[in-house]
Amino acid sequence: MMIAILLLHGLCSLFLVGALSHQAAATWRRAPLAGRPTGVVAGFAAVRAPLYAQAIAISYVLTMVLGDVVYGPYRVDVKTMLFDLQLWPWNGVFEIKEHLVALGFFLLGPYLVLWRVPLGATQARSRRLLTSLLAAIVWYALLAGHLLNNLKGVGF
Amino acid sequence: MEHTASPLGRWTLAALVASAAYVLAYSQDVTLFYYYPMGGEWHWRPQGEALGPRITYYGWKAIGLLAGGATLLLPRRWTDRLPPDTVWVGALLLAAVVCAHESHWFLK
Predict the structure, then answer these.
(1) Any bridge partners for residue B43, and if so which?
(2) Is residue A118 over pLDDT 90?
(3) How many domains is chain A built from?
(4) Full domain range(s) for residue A48
(5) Cis amide prior to B37 (ω within 30 degrees)
(6) Do A125 and B85 count as a contact with CB atoms less than 8 A apart?
(7) Do B106 and A88 touch (CB under 8 A)?
(8) How far apart are the two ends of chain A, measured CA to CA in Å?
(9) Interface ipTM
(10) Which among A107, A125, A129, A138 is the top mutation candidate for probing chain B, defined by the most B β-carbons within 10 Å of its own β-carbon?
(11) Is there a contact between B53 and A76 if contact means CB atoms under 8 Å apart?
């Protein structure tokens, strides 16, 4: 059961990373495209970013809650092993992950306000930088979780 | 920095207060409750080692949520003039505090 939850947690985080990366890229686009995007980079950013906001917020909460469920066995099996083997940097990688994910969770309120349609032109910089910060947090969380799972998986 | 009359100021302050409360709680190791995953038990106070390792993380997040929720009750006129940039500047600062606080794991 725990392996299934861990897999679901991983799948949700992949969706989250993808959606937030597209949305963050869209905020850095210089001007709206006149026609169809011609390259991969332009195409990556050519999304209707405001439509992503609610799905991203729901996905963030879902991913975090699933991570919270997995955290119990992680604390017993994996963290204990990290301490026993004195793998301190790896524990640090996880500690930063859990704290940044919590900060990102608290930031979802202003994030949703910033993406409320019609978008406020005076808030463009805040929207861009907060979205990019959230994208960086979920990228870090995904990579840290993946690396730690390689070290010792939960439920095995 | 521009000023805004949207609900952004209120939500920004709530998010930053929640985050600051969380960071303060975890850095001082203060939590609302403890969870012992080996026995699946929740306690208001720390228990003996017989229950195995404990989790304080959920309690820290609860502290953040309570602090943020209380901030949302503030009158809107108090937060209306908060600059929009406060949200990402504050978030970056708190993320930097977290990274600095956890840097000791990489120096052992």
Answers:
(1) B34
(2) no
(3) 1
(4) 2-151
(5) no
(6) yes
(7) yes
(8) 11
(9) 0.91
(10) A107
(11) yes
CB contact under 8 A, B15 and A110: yes
Residues B51, B41 contacting (CB under 8 angstroms) = yes
Is residue B38 within 8 Å of B52, Cβ to Cβ?
Answer: yes
With respect to residue A74, please indicate whether it lies within any of the assigned structural domains.
yes
> If we measure between CA atoms, which residue out of A152, A154, A156, A140 comes closest to residue A6?
A154
Q: pLDDT class for A29, splitting at 50, 70, 90?
A: confident
Average per-residue pLDDT for chain A: 90
Nearest to A106 among B68, B84, B92 (CB): B68
Residue B33 sits at the chain A interface (C-beta within 8 Å): no
Entry pTM: 0.91
Q: Using 50, 70 and 90 to split pLDDT, how confident is the model at B3?
A: very low
Q: Note the pLDDT of residue A43.
A: 77
**Which chain A residues have a beta carbon less than 8 Å from that of B108?**
86, 88-89
Residues of A in contact with B64 (CB under 8 A): 102, 106
Nearest CA-CA distance, residue A89 and chain B, Å: 5
The DSSP annotation for chain A comes to -HHHHHHHHHHHHHHHHHHHHHHHHHHT-SS--SSS--SHHHHHH-S-GGGGHHHHHHHHHHHHHHHHHHHHHIIIIIHHHHHHTT-HHHHHHHHHHHHHHHHHHHTHHHHHHHTPSSPPGGGHHHHHHHHHHHHHHHHHHHHHHHHHHHHS-TT-
Using alpha carbons only, give the angle B48, B52, B56 rounded to the nearest 5 degrees: 85
Look-up of token digits 């939500």: B11
> Is the model's pLDDT at B30 over the cut of 90?
yes
Distance between CA atoms of B103 and B68, rounded to whole angstroms?
A: 27
